[in-house]
Amino acid sequence: MWANFTIFLLLVSRVLSNFSGSEAYFDSSEEAPNIILSHMEDVDLKNSQDREDGRNDTSTLPVFVPGSSKRLTEYLLSKHNLNAPPDGLLNVHYELELVHILGIDELKQTMTVLIYVDEHWQDPSLVWDPALYGGIKKTWIPIDKIWVPDIIIFNMLAHEDLLSAVRAPARIHYNGTVVASHPAVHTVSCEINIRNFPLDHQKCAIEIASWAYGQEKIRLHAHTDHSLEHYKRNEEWHLIRINVTEEKYVHEGIEVSEVKFELYVQRRPLFYMVTLTFPSYIMCAISVVGLFARFSTTGEREERFTLGVTAILTMAVLSLVVSEKVPHSSTHVPLLVAYFLFNMVIVSIAAMTTGIVMKVHRLGRHGDEPSDFWLKLFLIKPICQFNRPNKRKYKMNPDEPNHVVLVSETKNGEIKNGILPQQQTQQVQIIKDPVHARLEALEEYIKKMMHRCEHIQLEMNEMESQDNLAETRRRSTNGYVKISERLDLIFMTFFLTTVTIPVAVLFYLT
């Protein structure tokens, strides 16, 4: 054991003596002691750094002094009082970047937006010399450790600071410039004008000012070049433009400096046009066609009034749906509600007009004829009445009681049922013979009379059908019936045009 230890010491002394020269060489790293390995690692690290320095210019890399940031923070907090504002007039530069319009509540008259806020101001108590702190030109300090201006949104109803849990620090530059940035969700009051709903344009303002300091202490300056780099479009509202103005605002007797961001937005009305306006138009058009279409010239068609009442109830339900969406204003009626009310009035007038048309039609059914003035007024020529054919007559010959006379007259003045045209009467004579002969003659006579009765029944049926046809023709050619048909056509065209023009204008504006 001692022999091995002695050999190890001799080996170490030889290695040290060789290392003291200009070079040292080892066949394997395992043959060298640990101290030599550590030294070789330092040499390799130095060589690698030299190679990196050969590729990169070290003059561009900042040189940091360990502990400089800590000393700088302690120095700034030691001389800064978070309860004391900077001396003199403080100019605060306020920049608001709109990211997304989360929604506009017409009923509550509010607007919710996601924004990025940047505030810049100068604080002399946060100035330092970068040369004394390792060349540090900017640092970060928690926002609750320094004084910040009490800038608030005056018309804000709700606020959600998205970085409150993260405690986003403020960036401070060596010349005393403080930059505080944070995203936030604000809900602000917004006066909604419902006159042109759903084709409305809205203007919502975000009023920013100091709550306690007047303009002699804090003066706000806005960035007029508003960036929309991070803006995400809203599906219901289209952003038209953003106006930024600097104004003065009197609050509790103090004149404060105010920055106002005005957002001009336009509603995308396609949803309301498809779900409300178009179904309303279809219902009105079908009602008008059902009220005035001429499907038949018979019957009173009282179902017209039922159809009109159904359409009116439908318009009333749709107007209630819209009323729940918009604010309950007593000064303006929304355009969409006015459109529904217009349709209700049109359908009501159409239903009442149908009563007039039905009254004129009933006069024609009773056989009355209008005067020539009305026929000329509606461009209807007088139509001749359909002449009814004469009826066949049967009678007994008063001079000869034993003779039966059958008289038949037609449109052509001819006798039917096998009677010759030149004959106008036919007599059947019963001859006075003995009893047997009389019975045979009577039997023959009865058969002939039965045959005649059958022909008479057929003739009566034919004449009845001709009477019905004549009555139908008379009704169709009656002057009042023609006038009622012309009135139906005129009113249907008029009311269809009346309900079509508004919806066409709405879709054009959309």
Task: Estimate what percentage of residues fall within beta strands.
Answer: 15-25%
Architecture of the largest domain, according to CATH? Answer: Distorted Sandwich
User: Could you state the CATH homologous superfamily of the largest domain?
Assistant: Neurotransmitter-gated ion-channel ligand-binding domain
Helix content: 40-55%
Domain module count:
3
Structural class label: alpha+beta
Rg of Cα set: 54 Å
CATH topology tier name of the largest domain:
Acetylcholine Binding Protein, Chain: A
Order of helices and strands: HHHEEEEEEEEEEEHHHHEEEHH
Please give the number of β-strands. 14
User: Number of DSSP helices?
Assistant: 9
- Low-pLDDT segments, ≥5 res: 1-61, 382-397, 400-433
Biggest sheet character: 7 strands, mixed
Mean pLDDT: 76
Q: CATH class of the largest domain, anyone?
A: Mainly Beta
So what's the overall shape?
rod-shaped
Task: Report, as a whole number of angstroms, the end-to-end distance.
Answer: 102 Å
